[in-house]
Design a protein that fits this description.
It is a single chain. This protein is α+β, with helices and mostly antiparallel strands. Helices cover about 30% and strands about 35% of the residues. The protein has a four-stranded antiparallel β-sheet. The protein has a three-stranded antiparallel β-sheet with strand order 1-3-2. Strand 5 and strand 6 form a beta hairpin. The longest helix has 14 residues. The radius of gyration is 18 Å and the shape is elongated.
């Protein structure tokens, strides 16, 4: 079974290494040490913890009623407005998401660089690559 360093786990969870370290220190996710003394998280434990995080949320955001289950909360990093269409980029942890939508939708949502937003993805085809 693959194990992950605290830094690798943090990247996969979309948090800082300090946050992942605090979670490990608090016993929220089990760690063990390798031969060189680095703390590692077992892949199965990390997978279970990531599901727990996703289901629990942070408690800070309001619940929204939607059929879209793939939510990527992040920060707006770019807004490009055209006459009719617009392009919005969101950085959600290690993920950069780009959405094409109408200019009217961007204006109604009041989207601006630096504000928090959630990209929601619904797809009929999802591809998975093994790292």
């Amino acid at each position: 079974m693959q194990s992950y360093t605290i830094g690798q786990a943090a990247r996969l969870l979309g948090v800082s290494p300090d946050t992942a370290r605090r979670w490990a220190d608090a016993g929220r996710v089990a760690t063990h040490r390798d031969d060189s003394g680095r703390r590692l998280i077992d892949g199965r434990d990390l997978a279970a913890f990531s599901i727990e995080l996703a289901q629990g949320g942070t408690g800070e955001e309001e619940f929204s009623y939607t059929s879209v289950r793939n939510a990527f909360p992040g920060i707006v990093t770019a807004v490009k407005l055209g006459d009719v269409a617009a392009q919005v980029e969101i950085q959600a942890g290690p993920h950069r998401l780009v959405s094409l939508l109408t200019r009217e939708a961007v204006e109604e949502l009041g989207l601006e660089v630096g504000m928090q937003a959630t990209a929601r993805v619904k797809s009929t085809s999802v591809h998975i690559d093994r790292a």
